[in-house]
Structure to design on (96 residues):
């Protein structure tokens, strides 16, 4: 709401997250780094050196977080759902 148009940031979500996991402060922290930055205004003609470094760090951090989450066992209900979907795919009949 700074009057300079919309701005988009990515925050990678895994397929499952804990109920008490609060992601909004992390996303806001990343967005706030662009406040007052010249790369945001387009004056530099691209991304600044600081944000180029930050984007690399954020990508690594998001990847590690998702890999950690994926290495933990799935909840039983999701395992059942995946088995059911797998069984449906093998059928040769239409399923409504």
């Amino acid at each position: 709401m700074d009057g300079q148009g919309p701005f988009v940031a990515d925050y990678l979500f895994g397929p499952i997250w804990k109920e008490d996991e609060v992601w909004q402060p992390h996303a806001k922290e990343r967005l706030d780094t662009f406040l007052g930055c010249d790369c945001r205004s387009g004056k530099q003609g691209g991304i600044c050196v600081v944000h180029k470094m930050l984007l690399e760090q954020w990508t690594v951090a998001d990847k590690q977080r998702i890999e950690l989450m994926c290495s933990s066992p799935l909840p039983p209900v999701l395992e059942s759902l995946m088995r059911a979907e797998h069984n449906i795919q093998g059928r040769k009949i239409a399923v409504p």
